[in-house]
Amino acid sequence: MNIQNLKLALQNEPKFRYKQAWQAVFKDLIGNWNENTTLPKNLREKLNQTVPLEIKAEVFGSKHSKAIKALLELEDGNKIETVLLQHNDDRNTVCVSSQVGCALGCKFCATGKMGFKRNLTASEIISQVLFFTRYLKQNHPNSRISNIVFMGMGEPFLNYDNVMEAVKIINDPECFNIGARHISISTSGIVEGINKFAKESLQLNLAISLHAPNDQLRAQLMPIDRKYPLEEVMEAVEKYVENKSRQVMFEYLMIENINDGEKEARELAELMRHPLYVVNLIRYNPTGVFKPSPASRMIKFKNTLLRAGVKTTQRQGFGTDINAACGQLAGKKKQNNE
Ligand code: SAH
Ligand code: SF4
């Protein structure tokens, strides 16, 4: 749903029409303006023409886990992916994309391989949430989306303004009404973005994709480390924590014999010497270059961190069978079409 077009279409209408339309889309979850009965018929027709509500998507379900992935087609034909993760405790997390592709080319990431196409608009980010809100209403009417993570395709802090505009709408009680504390943004470490984020008034969560505890290794995996070395990233995070007193999650992919040794675990523990820092160890979803760490190495790594007093969690291996990690489905699709 294009919010800009909605505003344009209603600019000469009485003010309450906008509120009615908004309610119809985000609360009644209509999929076509004709489903609404409060708006005049001629206006509904106009809206169907200029602000279509259909969201074109291909849905991929995972038989063995509770991850559903949708490949959404944008107006210009580009495709982005969105994932719904249904947790056992009734939480439903939607993982949204912020860009078509990504310019940062991390070696382990399928989105990185696609290269960068363009930023998503706030409306396109919102549409991903709207898609799964409708999906849940249809398939699990008693469930609602409880959490949003910006961990899909793209680097959110390189599309800062649109991401924050979308976040405000996601948080808005008149819209999705998802609490700021349930919205997380993951960055590869864009320092200017972290600094701006520290000044936001909403109590959002910050996650940093770390993946390596020193610049030498990190730059090999994540070229962006050359522009924003670890020291600068950690300094920005420290300032953020001083400002916000909020926990920060550091994501760490476990890649066999690359970043999962004792040496790296100890170095990482050194970096994590702050009570509000939490490490989240993530199973690497193979993208052709590396191998995931076997469970034994993962346990050893985790134990070293725990012994050093670092809060450490492990992300559930959601939907490996549908390639539920960052950018992998859209990447695959593209290859198949080539
Ligand atoms: N660009 C941002 C947000 C999108 S990536 C960032 O990098 O933080 C979101 C998460 O997916 C990151 O932590 C990223 O490392 C992870 N990811 C990327 N490729 C993956 C893979 N092959 N397996 C598992 N997780 C992956
Ligand atoms: Fe971009 Fe994040 Fe993938 Fe790196 S991990 S290429 S920053 S989407």
From TrEMBL:
CC cofactor: [4Fe-4S] cluster
CDD domains per UniProt: Radical_SAM
Residue span, Radical SAM core domain: 88-321
Subcellular location: Cytoplasm
Positions that bind [4Fe-4S] cluster: C102, C106, C109
GO-annotated cellular components: cytoplasm
Active-site residues annotated for this sequence: E81, C326
Catalytic activity entry: adenosine(37) in tRNA + 2 reduced [2Fe-2S]-[ferredoxin] + 2 S-adenosyl-L-methionine = 2-methyladenosine(37) in tRNA + 5'-deoxyadenosine + L-methionine + 2 oxidized [2Fe-2S]-[ferredoxin] + S-adenosyl-L-homocysteine; adenosine(2503) in 23S rRNA + 2 reduced [2Fe-2S]-[ferredoxin] + 2 S-adenosyl-L-methionine = 2-methyladenosine(2503) in 23S rRNA + 5'-deoxyadenosine + L-methionine + 2 oxidized [2Fe-2S]-[ferredoxin] + S-adenosyl-L-homocysteine
GO annotation, biological process: rRNA base methylation; tRNA methylation
GO molecular function annotation: 4 iron, 4 sulfur cluster binding; metal ion binding; rRNA (adenine(2503)-C2-)-methyltransferase activity; rRNA binding; tRNA (adenine(37)-C2)-methyltransferase activity; tRNA binding
PROSITE patterns per the UniProt record, alphabetical: RADICAL_SAM (PS51918)
Keywords of this entry: 4Fe-4S, Cytoplasm, Disulfide bond, Iron, Iron-sulfur, Metal-binding, Methyltransferase, rRNA processing, S-adenosyl-L-methionine, Transferase, tRNA processing
Cofactor note: Binds 1 [4Fe-4S] cluster. The cluster is coordinated with 3 cysteines and an exchangeable S-adenosyl-L-methionine.
Binding site for S-adenosyl-L-methionine: G154, E155, S186, S209, L210, H211, N285
Enzyme nomenclature, EC number: 2.1.1.192
NCBIfam families with a match to the protein in the record: rRNA_mod_RlmN (TIGR00048)
Other facts noted in the record for this chain: Reaction proceeds by a ping-pong mechanism involving intermediate methylation of a conserved cysteine residue.
PANTHER family: 23S RRNA METHYLTRANSFERASE (PTHR30544), RADICAL SAM CORE DOMAIN-CONTAINING PROTEIN (PTHR30544:SF5)
Family assignment from sequence similarity: Belongs to the radical SAM superfamily. RlmN family.
Role summary: Specifically methylates position 2 of adenine 2503 in 23S rRNA and position 2 of adenine 37 in tRNAs.
Protein name per Swiss-Prot or TrEMBL: Probable dual-specificity RNA methyltransferase RlmN
Gene name of the record: rlmN
